[in-house]
Amino acid sequence: MLTLLLAAALAVPAHAPRVSLHDAFNGPQCYRYNQQIVGFGMRYPGSPGHAKTEALIKSVIARDGGILETDDFVAQTPRGPVPVHNIIGKFNVSKDPDQPIFILAGHYDTLFQPKGFVGANDGGSSTAILLSFADALHAAPPTHMQIWLVWTDLEEAVKSFTATDGLYGSKHLAHKLLTEGLVPRIKGFFLLDMIGDKDLDVDKESQSTPWLQDFIAAAARKLHYSQYFFKYSTAITDDQVSFLNVGIPSVDIVDATFGPMTSGDGMGAWHHTLQDTMDKVSEHSLNVVGRTTLLAVEMIDSQSG
Ligand SMILES: [Zn+2]
Q1: 124 Cα to the center of ligand 1, angstroms
Q2: Domains of the chain, earliest start first
Q3: Cα 97 to ligand 1 centre (Å)
Q4: How far does residue 63's CA lie from ligand 1's centre (Å)?
Q5: How many angstroms does the Cα of residue 203 sit away from the middle of ligand 1?
Q6: CA of 271 to the centre of ligand 1 (A)
Q7: pLDDT digits (tens), the chain, 305 positions
Q8: Ligand 1 centroid to 17 CA: how many Å?
Q9: Rounded to the nearest whole angstrom, what is the distance from the C-alpha of residue 54 to the centroid of ligand 1?
């Protein structure tokens, strides 16, 4: 039997089929990350929970073999100067100086107010899904594109959302990419926000780049997840706007209706309230959005060779 076994071993192709990027997304682990992050408590810049989240993000980037970069600055806000720490993990980086780049981003800060706000969905789900993207990229890197995972900081307004209060981290990073001349290499940008909602309904965000949105719709169709995407068209000003403004094709993957639609801000009764807790988040929603986003990245990657 020895010779037969040896023959069978030799018959295995040198490059055995490996798991695809979207199949490498681990929904249960993503939910555990979300729980862990919420366990850190409030996570506004300067809080202990914020520092713990930063440490977790950096440890996962290191464990998954990403290249860590930080974009640190001090924002001038209505509450005075606030230190802001964008965190970037670069994956699948080749020696090619023109290698195309794709960015997946989400904010990891939470609101300053009200006291006790833990943002399971708003801040927690986006942080967690990017950690799971790091794990998936480690297991199944794409063929062509280098992927940047960007955890943006101080997305939330420190007082109330205006043209100058909010999106601090993303504005700074987008401007930096522009001044460094990197914009032409960036094929696209997907923002993930509030995608853990048990009652998942991803908006067709109307400022987003339509051709890039089509990849999300196509990936959702392929995975039989179309019922969760693009039933409603809404304009949501979020971190994607900062990147659109410097000429990067961008999509906001956001479920902007969180809880009964009875509250004053039009984004659901649990949005920016103490009701934004883990019981409103589901592993299934994280899995649907995670797999769909990564399949869209695979489809874009296959056209980037
Ligand atoms: Zn928010």
Answers
A1: 10
A2: 38-302 (3.40.630.10)
A3: 36
A4: 29
A5: 16
A6: 7
A7: 444 444 444 555 556 568 999 999 999 999 999 999 999 999 999 999 999 999 999 999 999 999 999 999 999 999 999 999 999 999 999 999 999 999 999 999 999 876 899 999 999 999 999 999 999 999 999 999 999 999 999 999 998 888 899 999 999 999 999 999 999 999 999 999 999 999 999 999 999 999 999 999 999 999 999 999 999 999 999 999 999 999 999 999 999 999 999 866 889 999 999 999 999 999 999 999 999 999 999 999 999 87
A8: 41
A9: 18
Give residue 86 CA to ligand 1 midpoint distance, Å: 17
CA of 277 to the centre of ligand 1 (A): 13
Q: If you measure from the C-alpha of residue 15 to the centroid of ligand 1, how many angstroms do you get, rounded to a whole number?
A: 44
| Å from CA of 166 to ligand 1 middle | 10
Rounded distance from Cα 236 to ligand 1 centre (Å): 11
Question: Which of 152, 155, 171, 128 lies closest to 272 in space, CA to CA?
Answer: 155
